[in-house]
Write a structure and sequence with these properties.
By secondary structure, the chain is α/β, with parallel strands linked by helices. It has helices spanning 59-66, 68-71, 106-119, 134-145, 172-178, 206-225, 257-264, 289-310; strands at 39-44, 90-95, 123-128, 149-153, 188-190, 202-204, 229-235, 271-278.
């Protein structure tokens, strides 16, 4: 395969105690020099679109802090038994800059930030922030890949009434549908515990997952998405509050961490072009439960990309 153009982003970082050192995601190098990276992790610390409890602006920092223990395990990442950083050059590019006094500029700020990452040729993995940030992320990704299949883990369908102007984390996927950003016929929502008008998405609600299990849910996702370019968005409130108390709109009856990870780990064959995890709100968390779940989901997503790279 030759020498990777960003060999400085491969391998283990300098060993340090899990409770010390720089709090980058999985201890990856923090750099704005991202050309040649395979995956760029970046934070979107925005929560002005929340409808209940704010606090997700602190999500990226909490997810990074919770990832440090996982960083010590990358040589034998469970359950994959691989070191993802032996083949994948992964950088932490820090956070998108927002001016909190001008929330109306958030769409442009995220789109511009995503353009910068995607122009490098890397896959973008984003740490939210409230769920509204997925809308501008989709806009940027669609410019490169065309309309996307949305694989959407959530308690809420996020297709409530939208006038095209609101900053609202509960309506942006109706806007995305109307703007042709997502191919609804190829899109699936998992873990849902809410109602909205039928917008054409395949919905695997939480009771479906509880009754049929992770394997059947994953098979159904594969059936719907097929070979389409896909974007994965994981609202942490997809998990039951017992597993994710630190979120803005918790809904009982959700998936367990084991169920969510069990589904995700079976989606490696899908043609993902990007991923985000959103709505981690540390002020309501306990013992980092929510941040740990979010960090593990992103870690496992990266491992899936490493498996694909190695042909496994």
């Amino acid at each position: 395969m030759g020498i990777h153009p960003r060999a400085d982003l491969l391998g283990r970082t300098e060993a340090t105690a899990t409770f010390a050192g720089d709090l980058t995601f999985l201890r990856r190098k923090r750099t704005r020099e991202i050309h040649g990276a395979d995956i760029v992790v970046t934070g979107l610390p925005f929560d002005a679109a929340t409808s209940f409890r704010p606090g997700a602006r602190f999500g990226p920092a909490a997810i990074r802090a919770a990832s440090v223990q996982l960083a010590e395990l990358v040589g034998r990442a469970f359950p994959f038994d691989i070191d993802p950083f032996a083949t994948l050059a992964v950088a932490d590019a820090g956070d998108c800059l927002f001016d909190s006094g001008y929330p109306q500029n958030v769409v442009k700020a995220v789109v511009d930030h995503a353009h910068w990452v995607l122009k490098s040729g890397a896959m973008m993995v984003s740490l939210g922030g409230d769920h509204f940030v997925t809308y501008p992320l989709l806009k940027a990704h669609v410019e490169k890949y065309g309309p996307l299949a949305l694989v959407h883990f959530d308690a809420h369908v996020d297709t409530w009434a939208d006038d095209g102007k609101r900053l609202d984390h509960g309506s942006m996927f109706l806007r995305a549908k109307r703007e042709g950003l997502i191919d609804v016929s190829r899109s699936v929502q998992i873990g849902i515990r809410s109602f909205s008008t039928d917008e054409g998405f395949t919905v695997l609600d939480a009771p479906f997952v509880h009754e049929h299990g992770a394997l059947v849910a994953a098979e159904r996702i594969h059936d719907v998405v097929g070979s389409a370019h896909a974007y994965l968005t994981f609202d942490i409130d997809c998990l039951d509050p017992a597993f994710a108390p630190g979120t803005g709109t918790p809904v009982p009856g959700g998936l367990s961490s084991a169920q969510a990870l069990g589904i995700l780990r079976k989606l490696g064959a899908l043609n993902f072009v990007g991923m985000d995890v959103v709505e981690v709100a540390p002020p309501y968390d306990h013992a980092e439960i929510t941040a740990l779940a979010a960090a593990t989901l992103v870690h496992d997503f990266i491992c899936l990309q490493a498996l694909k790279r190695s042909g496994r």
